[in-house]
Amino acid sequence: MAATATLVKQWWDGKKIWAQVNIVLSGSYVQGGDTCSLAALGIKSSLVPFSFDLQSTAGTAAQAVNLYQWVPGTTQANGKIRCFIGAVAELAAGAYPAPAATTDTVAGTFAFEIR
């Protein structure tokens, strides 16, 4: 199963569309990044995001803060999220580790051009 994105809110600042998204990881990770589609979220742009920021929301002492990186795709449907558990090395291919990844929600902010 791929990473699942949920739209929290979106707004237009007069120049670009901003989307705040929560991403939940489940299933298995693929080396180089897990596919995460933004296509069906109702974002008011059909373009791929040109700016993005992903943050771990890990909040317990037992859970290391992870780093996440967005890899833009050719469409909103085929972007990828790369996972660095414990912020050291990219997660190896295989099942997402619990609780390090499976209980972490990734908060993402994406910016889109309007055309």
What report would you give on this structure?
With 115 residues, the protein is mainly beta. It has no helices and ten strands. The protein has one domain: Immunoglobulin-like, CATH 2.60.40. The strands form three sheets. Strands 1-2-10-5 form a four-stranded antiparallel sheet, with no helix packed on it. Strands 4, 6, 7 and 8 form a four-stranded antiparallel sheet that branches. Strands 3-9 form a two-stranded antiparallel sheet.
Helix content class: under 10%
Assign the structural class, choosing from mainly alpha, mainly beta, alpha/beta, alpha+beta, or little secondary structure. Answer: mainly beta
Low-confidence stretches: none
Q: What is the CATH first-level class name?
A: Mainly Beta
Strands of the largest sheet, in order across it? 1-2-10-5
Global outline: globular
How would you summarize the topology of this molecule?
Blueprint: E1 4-12, E2 17-24, E3 28-29, E4 34-36, E5 51-56, E6 67-71, E7 79-85, E8 89-90, E9 94-95, E10 105-112
Antiparallel strand pairs: 1-2, 2-10, 3-9, 4-7, 5-10, 6-7, 7-8
